[in-house]
């Protein structure tokens, strides 16, 4: 199973989690079956590419998305591609994978979407 974490860099399991999944410079993908870690550049629509992030990640075989937070519309888009989303990610990719395996991340829903990354901040410019 391929598990994806939006990241700020190309540091593999030590990579820092990016708070805005759509504008993450990279996506770190862990294949839980083989243990292989790959980091791919974000070439989705948000970065000038042709596809929105859910479609882009689906094309890369992602089945699970672990992110800080996202809007409910994005959750529904991920679900339409068969990708399950968990929110509450933070720290490094390793931290996030361990938290997910321990059941500490929440399955994304209408109730918890856009609740994990400071939407109450004044001047926060965020578009889903």
UniProtKB/TrEMBL annotation:
CDD domains: MTH1175. This is Putative transcriptional regulator. Transmembrane segments: none annotated. It comes from Methanosarcina lacustris Z-7289. Residues 15-101 form the Dinitrogenase iron-molybdenum cofactor biosynthesis domain. InterPro entries: Di-Nase_FeMo-co_biosynth, DiNase_FeMo-co_biosyn_sf, MTH1175_dom. PANTHER family: DINITROGENASE IRON-MOLYBDENUM COFACTOR PROTEIN-RELATED, IRON-MOLYBDENUM PROTEIN.
């Amino acid at each position: 199973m391929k598990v994806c974490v939006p990241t700020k860099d190309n540091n593999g399991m030590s990579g820092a989690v990016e708070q805005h999944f759509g504008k993450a410079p990279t996506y770190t993908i862990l294949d839980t079956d083989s243990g292989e870690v790959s980091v791919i550049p974000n070439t989705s629509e948000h970065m000038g590419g042709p596809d929105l992030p859910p479609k882009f990640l689906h094309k890369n075989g992602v089945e699970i998305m672990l992110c800080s937070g996202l809007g409910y519309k994005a959750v529904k888009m991920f679900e339409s591609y068969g990708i399950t989303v968990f929110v509450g990610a933070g720290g490094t990719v390793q931290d996030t994978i361990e938290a997910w395996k321990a059941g500490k991340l929440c399955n994304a829903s209408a109730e918890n979407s856009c609740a994990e990354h400071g939407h109450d901040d004044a001047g926060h410019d965020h578009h889903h």
